[in-house]
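Hi R.,

Here's the chain you asked about this morning:
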Amino acid sequence: MTKQVKLSDFDVSETTGFVATKPPLRKLPGEYFSSWEDTCTKIPALIENKELRAKIDALPERQFNKETLESEEEWKRAYVLLTFLSQSYIWAEGEAGVIDTLPKKLAVPWYAVSEHLAMKPVATYASVILYNYSLRDPKGGMTADNLVAVSTFTGTKDESWFYMVHVLVELAAVSGLKAIEGAFEAMKMQKNEKLKNELQKIEKAIDNMRKTLQNMYNKCDAEVYYCKVRHFLSGAQGNPAFPNGVIYEGVDNKPHFYNGGSAAQSSSIPSFDALLGAKHPGPEKDPTFMRKMREYQPRKHRDFLVAIDTQPSLREYIKKSQNSELIKKYNSALESLIKFRRSHMRLIDIYIIEQSRKCRATEATGTHGTSVDPGKDETAVGIPVKALAFTGAGGTPVETFLKQVKDSTESIKIPLPVF
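And here is the predicted structure, written out as tokens:
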């Protein structure tokens, strides 16, 4: 007998979903971490002045002591902190100066913290989004105007907005996540009217996620994201800039090929995929990509997906019911998922594909920017990383991959019965 799926068993909040109900720590307490925190707040300026690596190299060599982290909130802040310090160290001098060996003073604690949290030592959706939000007004709500990133690589409003829109998308998913509980309960009790209501809630939640995602265009300039932010989120997997992987000095001195931060590491859309029975093959060069992304999610969130997987199939239940109204509700929920993916594809087209094409078109002129705005200060925009052209930060060829995911979602719609 399968165990009932309950959000509370998996650190999934009924008010904020996969986002913590209480804002993450902004700063680790104590002298031990003060030099890390101080350096992290200065990352944008240190990169701009080409002083970041020298600053980190000058930090005192100390043996990492796990006992200095007392709560899970502190472990999560340490994970965020070391992610920003390490990823900025790797990319501080752009593509031409990228390094593939992370110094021991960063590698050892980052690896240890990641191991404790069952995460990967690389930029992840959790480290830059789920564990990295704050409220401008602590007494205010989790709204677009009140959310702000704790740490950034560039200090730009664009980068903070990029992260916080994803937080808002997670919040928009909450009613749908709660409906997953209700859907399994309705199926178990064979209450088809209740099941139709739960599917309608899921459809509405995914529609709200799609509409919320559109806010990205408001305050995140595509050129700034492509040229200044994106490479800091990337890993070695699928990245020509790291043909030999990345070595974590003092850990095992072997090359590691981790995927970078990806929206596929969010647990919200994968939860709806799992419920509705949508299974997606990965890109040709990485066919297990979607399944592998679960390894980059917080431990209890990936356990939530496994719990959904082990439940009786919702799709098979509805298909066998031959209930036309129930099938229509199921297909409508799937259609909302398809619309979300089309919207995501359009976003990727603007923020990655179009920018990649413009870079290719301007290479012959000897300029570095994408020429979206000829009057824009190139130093404010940054120089794009050619190795990541047409590729997501997670290391996949995004255009073909996302279309493949959309198509596989469309393929599982249930035909209406013919009587």
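One quick note: The first helix runs from residue 34 to 41.

Cheers,
M.
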